[in-house]
């Protein structure tokens, strides 16, 4: 299978497992799920609370949350995410990544942990040099994909994405857990919105840098 198709399948599988585990975890913890989106962009299909979108590159789980919606005065909010104990507010955003990390380490074995730890530095260094360092890393990834089966390719890809999602920036699972800890389990704090906006910028910058790196790598490959 061509590495580009493997990459797409890895994205889809990672997204399906990540979002599904978070939704299942929310329900198990007694938190109301408002909606589940697989993918981003225009909606192709809606079945109940599940929305299937055009681009299978990300997704999200919308929870009952008093910071995002206005509720009735007599609603005790016992099933709202931000009214849960601190451990639940931390566990939920980490559940999908935790499951994928365990699955990937189970496939790759001991070497998987080393690759996972190394991924944090690779993500940052690649984002700082998308046309050099990132290109070398993508080349290594392509070589791995051409010489290994899909299970190992998915495990490696998943470990890298798990590391990215655990970065302490808003919009990522690590940032969500960090903000929950900073709130100390409180449903709402006045400073959270402004802090979250500032924490969103580094994560967005890293993401855009890697999008540029993937684009340049693909362009170079087609031009060769």
Describe the overall structure.
This protein is of the alpha+beta class and 224 residues long. The chain has seven helices and two strands, in the order H-E-E-H-H-H-H-H-H. It has helices spanning 3-28, 86-108, 110-128, 133-147, 150-165, 173-183, 192-223; strands at 33-47, 50-63. A two-stranded antiparallel ribbon has the order 1-2. A hairpin with a 2-residue loop joins strand 1 (33-47) and strand 2. Helix 2 packs across helix 3 (110-128). The longest helix is centred in the last third of the chain and has 32 residues, at 192-223. The chain is globular and about 65 Å long. The two termini are 19 Å apart. The model has no long low-confidence stretch (mean pLDDT 91).
């Amino acid at each position: 299978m061509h590495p580009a198709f493997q990459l797409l399948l890895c994205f889809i599988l990672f997204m399906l497992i990540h979002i599904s585990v978070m939704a299942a975890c929310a329900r198990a913890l007694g938190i109301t799920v408002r909606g589940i989106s697989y993918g981003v962009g225009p909606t192709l299909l809606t079945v109940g609370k599940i929305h299937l979108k055009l681009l299978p590159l990300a997704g999200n789980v919308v929870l009952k949350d008093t910071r995002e919606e206005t509720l009735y005065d007599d609603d005790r909010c016992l099933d709202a995410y931000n009214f849960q104990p601190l451990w639940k507010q931390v566990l939920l955003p980490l559940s999908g990544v935790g499951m994928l990390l365990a699955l990937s380490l189970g496939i790759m074995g001991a070497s998987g942990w080393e690759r996972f730890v190394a991924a944090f530095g690779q993500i940052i260094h690649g984002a700082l040099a998308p046309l050099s360092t990132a290109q070398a890393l993508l080349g290594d990834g392509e070589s791995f994909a051409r010489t290994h089966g899909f299970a190992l390719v998915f495990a490696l890809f998943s470990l890298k994405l798990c590391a990215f999602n655990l970065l302490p920036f808003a919009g990522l699972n690590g940032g969500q857990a960090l903000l929950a800890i900073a709130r100390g389990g409180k449903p709402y704090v006045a400073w959270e919105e402004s802090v979250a906006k500032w924490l969103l910028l580094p994560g967005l910058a890293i993401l855009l840098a890697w999008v540029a790196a993937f684009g340049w790598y693909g362009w170079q490959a087609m031009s060769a």
